[in-house]
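Protein sidekick-1
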Amino acid sequence: NGRSVVEHHPSSYWEQPFSQPYFDNTTKRETTTTVGQSAYLHCRVRNLGDRAVSWIRQRDLHILTVGILTYTNDQRFQSLHSDGSDEWTLKISSPQVRDSGIYECQVSTEPKISQAFNLSVVVSKAKINGNSELYIKSGSDINLTCIVLQTPEPPSFIYWYKGDNVINYSQRGGISVVTEKQTRTSRLLISRALAADSGNYTCAPSTAESASVLVHVLNGE
């Protein structure tokens, strides 16, 4: 009779067990973090049903987590999951360089399916341009530029110290600091330097090893 028949099914009809679990391939598979900065690996599994999701460290096939339970004695590893979500996140607190490598998100189907994630943990360091000691004449300007190397994210702050103390702008005029987070650089300018400005200057970013330079302000010629 040419008429089409439209069948109406409850939404659960489309979530029948015959749908096998599969990975959402839009998640980020390469993650870089700095030493000490928590890392998150996001695994998304569709149609999980009653299967379990495990995280496994590939280099020694060590099971780190199953579901939301941590199976390793190393409590830096934790599985994060919200009820109703299809995301299973491996959180690695205080990562070290040795934690770099492949981590597998594995689903307990038969046979098992897994997706590999690569974590790189890098040492972020500050570097002050020039030599480790700087000699300048009294009355000249001290001009120091600090660059933060090997950092995936811009540091949230970069402090300058003289000796053990944060540089105090109110103590003397003529001090300026210009920090550009996106280019990961900070410049310290002390105009008309005096002998009292001699000392050890340190650039200390929030998420990187600090760098220092020893400044000698010389009187006269």
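thats it. Confidence is low (pLDDT under 50) at residues 9-17. Residues 81 and 183 are 35 Å apart (CA to CA). bye
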